[in-house]
């Protein structure tokens, strides 16, 4: 008898017209609107493209010695000048960048993954805390140089045999830098996790039966993102410089193999006479680190739901 | 908390003993020879005799046992003698350096003044600069100050001390002639003039080292502050009518300190032996230079002792950090 | 002839010194920087150059070599020779006469007992003496009277000037070291840091690997010397910084051994605060050729031993071609400037021992190619690398980490690639490379590479031991714990025979003839050692420091007593 009242049109629920926006889509949108992050991303992309494609385009070979044109300033033929043996600096920057960027990024990622994993596990599971942190103490205490020398002694020939000389040394260097630099990240992440896991939202999540795995990946990790990001930026600078130090120990790439760290170190001797020579590798390392830093900033902002959309 | 601290301290003893063993084995395994710096003109059989005179002929476990006894028994007894004027350690053999043929501890003590003056001072200066920069950068995120701070600290961190050290020497010693390029470790501060001299020779190494510390700590401070500035409790505190200063410097800062405390505690041990390159460039000749020259000369007793002392500091300061977490955030419980 | 004129010259020099400065300590303070810091003041416990140099300020031998390599008496009245009766006719003993009236810095008299004690101290089998080689063949040391001491050798010794000559074997005080012999040598920290000496300075404070404070020795034999009242001897840092401190900022007066690129030194000199000095000894930068197979496929213990000859470096044509392709003049210009001379000799001096072998100085790429073609090494598979019977001319070339050496490696690699030889480069940290750790694959003795580059020299002016280091039995191998100086594993009975003959010959000219023959066998005839550069020593002094005579045959501080301040 009574009609069902017609719903007021304006209040009618139309149902979702578009599929729900995914979490990562939101993150990406936020990231895009972060000017620093965008600029950082573009610069990094340019650097990566230049160092990976550059050597194919630029006519000079990084190891070719033209002794008559040594110690030249910038010119049309050699826009960045030449070094003390007459090798083209631009070619060496490009070739060296390939190694430095590859070593820097992979070693940083390795250290980050190791550090975050150990840090989260130690902070989250009380039973693992003691053993893992004592393990970290041990690694912090080992003297770096002898450790690296031992690694070369034990693994160089084996790796060279398995992966060929260049890949073998690359793996050795990345692993050497990775396993000697994860500890600060682990300690920092653990400290943050210890505090986080007592927070209300974790208790709430736990009370609705969230598994430990989901708890860690959904609630803990996004909240320790910012120290991890800072570690990443500092880590990449460290890795690039450490690589050059390894080469001096005879542990790294062959001596005629340019890298940014090595170019910077070689040029320091000529600081007064040819100041432009230190400028290029210094600039390249700084730019790479800065761009990663800004991308880290953007990513951090994008991952924080509280400021998303502001 | 107290029981936790005591338990950790007690537990640190076996940990440290294990660490000392691992360091010893690592040094054994590492390639190197205490005769590396002896000229090639000295024939091999003479070198072999010299190695034997250093005790290298004995098996590894005997040498490790000797080191343990000398380090953990003889050296503390000597310290006891020194304080109370007794003669317990009379005639006992101490840990002797292979390079100097003299007790390792004496040389370490000798290196302390310059290490503390330069490296420790730079650490303190670095922290004192970093904290305000980090806090203000986060509070005014993306302001001009924040951008400039980011730029300077990141470039500063990307430029390694082997370059920045030489750069400041070329500018301030060679071109301008204002500062000495070589640190005088024999200088004793007795009056105003020597104090001024000490300050002048400290400026460059302290600044080069502090730049690295500042860059690192200010980044962590900023990131951590940013995480906390948007939390609900901050809004609550503001709503309560607390002053902005109290909100930021009391509530937010305290909650943001955990990662920063970790980083600071991790850095302290490296004051004693970590500033290798800077010490070499400015000829400060502190513990870092001592360690690196000992490694190069394969002076195993020296390397073992210095690295072990650093290990003690690492374990100790990590305990300090863990205790401080509990103080900063009472929710953190260890038991 | 030489001795008399030398003595006269030395007296004249000291008279001149006397005239210039009437008073000890009148010139105040002098600053010296060594970028490698001395760790001990006793040269018998550390064979390191830096320690020998620092100790020479305090401790003195009976005689030294001067800047020309000639012997001059220091604590001795004269240099004993066969002519003056000091050396026995049968060459089995040498008798030293000490200057009368000498005093140690603590005021006690210097006697022959101290000389004998020094020999006993070093020859003690438990002491681990670094200078034992100087006392090789010594049977006993006899004290004849207070001022006469006689050294007896087991066999005839053509060169009896090993003990007590030069910076490596100075005299230490018997009274001070009496309790420090044998196994107790290393427990005497105080004595080893501040030895009582007869030299121009005494140690006030010794900080190992850091700084030494010294002051003038009040008992020094010449009352007018040294001109400086105090000295600071700073160590540490790197060669660039040391050069800068003397040549550019003027903070220091003397910097030792500046191993820097020539243009860097030249630019530093332009600041006008000081000058770089160069002098030549016997140091030769060379490439050593491995005559055994270092292939990693061989089992450990057989790898790089005489059991497996090298697949292609045993071919003399290949070795010769490698040598011909190198432009030594250019290498010298780039790496050492005025501190180097291109050389084809392994024994570059003193002049009577140096062969006039110069044919390698002109680079001959075409000649090298022709030589390889002739020997059957051609690029048969078209990969740009020559081969023969399936063996490719592909090399691993290692050296220690050092900026100049890495530049050399890059240049040489390019030249060799022009003649169709492929090179892989490797650098090894100096502390591992020059260390004799038998467990490490990277030492220069183990030589797990095809070629390696380093520099070596011989002490004093007699090359006998140096030449004898290439006999068959000196090859490093597993049985010798990989110790030995014959890193090439060179083995030629004819060479060994000639070395023995050298040991029997006493006449200087005959010795020189044999030495030249041996040198040529190993370089120009067989190319087992490919010499590159005869390297000099470069040190820097400030413009206000006078009296410096750079000496490579003894320590650089040999005449520190004569150093003085030039008044402007």
If you had to describe this structure to a student in words, what would you say it looks like?
The complex is a heterotrimer of chains A (310), B (335) and C (568). Chain A is mostly helical and 310 residues long. Chain A has helices at 23-32, 35-57, 89-124, 126-141, 144-163, 165-179, 183-196, 200-207, 212-223, 225-248, 260-268, 276-303. The model of chain A has no long low-confidence stretch (mean pLDDT 83). Chain B is globular. The model of chain B has no long low-confidence stretch (mean pLDDT 86). In chain C, helix 6 packs parallel to helix 7 and helix 8 packs antiparallel against helix 10. With 568 residues, chain C is α+β, with helices and mostly antiparallel strands. In chain C, strand 13 and strand 14 (391-392) form a beta hairpin. Chain C contains 15 helices and 20 strands. Chain C is globular. Classes of the chains: A mainly alpha (310), B mainly alpha (335), C alpha+beta (568). Chains B and C meet through helix 2, helix 4, helix 6 and helix 11 of B and helix 5, strand 9, helix 6 and helix 12 of C.
Give the secondary structure arrangement, pairings included.
The complex is a heterotrimer of chains A (310), B (335) and C (568).
Chain A: H1 23-32, H2 35-57, H3 89-124, H4 126-141, H5 144-163, H6 165-179, H7 183-196, H8 200-207, H9 212-223, H10 225-248, H11 260-268, H12 276-303
Helix pairs in contact in A: 1-12, 2-3, 2-12, 3-4, 3-6, 3-7, 3-10, 3-12, 5-6, 8-9, 10-11, 10-12, 11-12
Chain B: H1 2-29, H2 44-53, H3 60-84, H4 104-139, H5 144-158, H6 161-175, H7 192-229, H8 232-239, H9 244-267, H10 276-281, H11 287-296, H12 300-328
Helix pairs in contact in B: 1-12, 4-5, 4-7, 4-9, 5-7, 6-7, 7-9, 8-9, 9-12, 11-12
Chain C: H1 2-20, E1 29-34, H2 49-55, E2 63-65, E3 71-73, E4 93-97, H3 112-123, E5 138-145, E6 148-153, H4 174-177, H5 189-193, E7 201-207, E8 211-216, E9 230-235, H6 239-247, E10 254-255, H7 262-269, E11 274-289, H8 316-324, H9 328-335, E12 340-342, H10 365-374, E13 387-388, E14 391-392, E15 394-400, H11 403-418, E16 422-428, H12 430-433, E17 451-456, H13 464-468, H14 493-504, H15 508-525, E18 529-542, E19 545-546, E20 564-565
Parallel strand pairs in C: 1-9, 1-10, 15-16, 15-17
Antiparallel strand pairs in C: 2-3, 4-6, 5-6, 7-8, 8-9, 10-18, 11-17, 11-18, 12-18, 13-14, 19-20
């Amino acid at each position: 008898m009574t009609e069902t009242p017609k719903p007021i049109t304006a209040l009618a629920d139309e149902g979702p017209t578009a599929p729900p926006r995914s979490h990562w889509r939101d993150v990406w949108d936020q990231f895009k609107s972060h000017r620093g992050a965008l600029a950082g991303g573009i610069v990094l992309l340019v650097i990566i493209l230049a160092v990976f494609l550059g050597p194919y385009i630029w006519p000079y070979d990084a190891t070719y010695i033209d002794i008559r044109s040594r110690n030249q300033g910038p010119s049309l033929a050699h826009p960045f000048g030449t070094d003390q043996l007459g090798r083209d600096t631009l070619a060496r920057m490009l070739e060296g960048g390939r190694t430095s960027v590859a070593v820097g990024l992979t070693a940083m990622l390795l250290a980050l993954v190791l550090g975050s994993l150990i840090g989260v596990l130690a902070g989250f599971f009380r039973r693992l805390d003691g053993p893992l942190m004592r393990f970290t103490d041990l690694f912090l205490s080992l003297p770096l140089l002898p450790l690296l020398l031992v690694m070369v002694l034990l693994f160089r020939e084996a790796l060279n045999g398995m992966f060929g000389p260049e890949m073998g040394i690359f793996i050795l260097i990345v692993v050497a830098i990775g396993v000697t630099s994860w500890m600060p990240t682990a300690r920092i992440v653990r400290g943050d996790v210890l505090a986080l896991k007592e927070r209300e939202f974790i208790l709430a999540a736990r009370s609705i039966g969230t598994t430990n795995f989901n708890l860690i990946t959904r609630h803990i990790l996004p909240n320790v993102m910012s120290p991890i990001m800072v570690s990443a930026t500092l880590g990449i600078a460290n890795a690039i410089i450490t690589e050059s130090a390894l080469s001096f120990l005879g542990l790294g790439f062959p001596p005629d193999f340019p890298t940014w760290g090595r170019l910077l170190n070689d040029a320091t001797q000529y600081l007064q006479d040819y100041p432009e020579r230190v400028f290029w590798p210094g600039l390249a390392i700084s730019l790479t680190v800065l761009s990663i830093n800004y991308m880290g900033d953007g990513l951090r902002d994008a991952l924080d739901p509280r400021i998303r959309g502001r | 908390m107290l029981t936790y601290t005591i338990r950790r301290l007690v537990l640190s003893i076996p940990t440290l003993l294990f660490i000392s063993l691992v360091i010893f084995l690592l040094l054994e395994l590492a390639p190197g020879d205490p005769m590396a710096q002896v000229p090639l003109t000295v024939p091999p059989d003479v070198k072999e005799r010299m190695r034997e005179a250093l005790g290298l002929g004995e098996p590894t476990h005997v040498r490790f046992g000797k080191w343990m006894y000398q380090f953990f028994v003889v050296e503390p007894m000597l310290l006891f003698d020194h304080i109370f004027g007794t003669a317990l350690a009379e005639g006992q053999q101490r840990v002797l350096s292979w390079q100097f043929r003299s007790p390792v501890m004496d040389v370490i003590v000798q290196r302390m003044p310059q290490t503390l003056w330069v490296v420790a001072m730079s650490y303190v200066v670095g922290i004192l600069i970093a904290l305000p920069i980090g806090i203000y950068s986060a509070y005014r995120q993306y302001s001009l100050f924040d951008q400039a701070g980011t730029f300077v600290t990141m470039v500063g961190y990307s430029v390694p001390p082997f370059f920045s050290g030489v750069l400041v020497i070329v500018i301030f010693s060679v071109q301008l002639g204002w500062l000495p390029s070589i640190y005088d470790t024999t200088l004793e501060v007795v009056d105003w003039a020597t104090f001024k001299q000490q300050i002048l020779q400290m400026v460059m190494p302290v600044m080069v080292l502090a730049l690295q510390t500042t860059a690192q700590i200010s980044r962590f401070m900023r990131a951590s502050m940013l995480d906390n500035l948007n939390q609900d409790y901050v809004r609550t505190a503001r709503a309560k009518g607390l002053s902005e200063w109290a909100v930021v410097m009391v509530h937010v800062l305290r909650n943001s300190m955990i990662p920063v405390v970790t980083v600071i505690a991790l850095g302290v041990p490296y004051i004693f032996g970590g500033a290798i390159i800077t010490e070499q460039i400015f000829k400060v000749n502190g513990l870092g230079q001592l360690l690196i020259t000992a490694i190069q000369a394969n002076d195993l007793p020296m390397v073992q002792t210095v690295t072990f002392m650093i290990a003690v500091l690492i374990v100790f300061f990590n305990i300090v950090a863990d205790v401080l977490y509990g103080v900063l955030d009472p929710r953190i419980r260890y038991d | 002839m030489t001795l008399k004129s030398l003595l006269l010259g030395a007296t004249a020099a000291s008279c001149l010194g006397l005239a210039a400065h009437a008073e000890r300590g009148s010139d105040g303070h002098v600053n010296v920087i060594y970028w490698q810091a001395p760790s001990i003041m006793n040269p018998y416990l550390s064979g390191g150059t830096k320690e020998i140099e620092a100790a020479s300020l305090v401790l003195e031998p009976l005689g030294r070599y001067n800047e020309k390599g000639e012997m001059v008496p220091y604590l001795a009245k004269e240099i004993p020779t066969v002519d003056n009766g000091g050396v026995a006719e049968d060459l089995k003993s040498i008798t030293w006469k000490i200057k009368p009236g000498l005093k140690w810095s603590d005021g006690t008299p210097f006697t022959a007992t101290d000389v004998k004690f020094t020999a006993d101290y070093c020859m003690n089998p438990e002491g681990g003496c670094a200078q034992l080689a100087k006392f090789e063949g010594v049977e006993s040391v006899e004290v004849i009277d207070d001022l006469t001491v006689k050294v007896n050798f087991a066999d005839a010794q053509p060169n009896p000037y090993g003990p007590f000559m030069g910076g490596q074997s100075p005299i230490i005080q018997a009274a001070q070291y009496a309790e420090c012999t044998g196994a107790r040598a290393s427990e005497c920290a105080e004595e080893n840091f501040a030895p009582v000496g007869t030299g121009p300075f005494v140690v006030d404070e010794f900080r190992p690997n850091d700084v030494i404070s010294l002051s003038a020795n009040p008992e020094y034999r010449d009352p007018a010397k040294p001109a400086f009242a105090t000295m600071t001897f700073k160590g540490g840092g790197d060669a660039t910084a040391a050069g800068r401190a003397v040549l550019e900022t003027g903070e220091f007066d003397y910097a030792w051994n500046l191993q820097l690129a020539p243009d860097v030194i030249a630019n530093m000199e332009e600041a006008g605060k000081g000058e770089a000095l160069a002098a030549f000894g016997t140091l030769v930068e060379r490439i050593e050729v491995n005559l055994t197979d270092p292939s990693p496929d061989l089992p450990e213990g057989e790898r790089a031993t005489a059991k497996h000859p090298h697949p292609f470096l045993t071919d003399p044509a290949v070795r010769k071609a490698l040598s011909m392709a190198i432009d030594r003049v250019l290498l010298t210009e780039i790496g050492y400037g005025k501190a180097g001379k291109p050389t084809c000799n392994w024994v570059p001096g003193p002049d009577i021992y140096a062969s006039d072998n110069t044919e390698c100085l002109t680079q001959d790429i075409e000649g090298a190619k022709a030589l390889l073609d002739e020997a059957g090494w051609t690029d048969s598979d078209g990969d740009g690398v020559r081969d023969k019977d399936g063996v490719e001319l592909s090399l691993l070339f290692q050296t220690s980490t050092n900026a100049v050496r890495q530049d050399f490696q890059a240049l040489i690699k390019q030249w060799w690639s022009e003649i169709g030889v492929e090179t892989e480069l490797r650098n090894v940290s100096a502390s591992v490379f020059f260390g004799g750790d038998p467990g490490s694959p990277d030492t220069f003795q183990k030589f797990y590479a095809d070629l390696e580059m380093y520099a070596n020299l011989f002490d004093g002016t007699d090359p006998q031991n140096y030449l004898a280091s290439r006999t068959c039995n000196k090859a490093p191998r597993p049985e010798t714990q990989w110790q030995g100086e014959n890193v090439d594993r060179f083995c030629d009975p004819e060479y060994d025979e000639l070395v023995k003959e050298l040991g029997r010959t006493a006449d200087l000219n005959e010795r020189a003839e044999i030495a030249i023959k041996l040198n040529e066998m190993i370089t120009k005839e067989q190319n087992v050692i490919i010499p590159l550069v005869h390297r000099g020593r470069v040190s820097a002094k400030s413009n206000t420091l006078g009296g410096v005579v750079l000496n490579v045959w003894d320590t650089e501080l040999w005449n520190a007593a004569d150093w003085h301040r030039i008044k402007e």
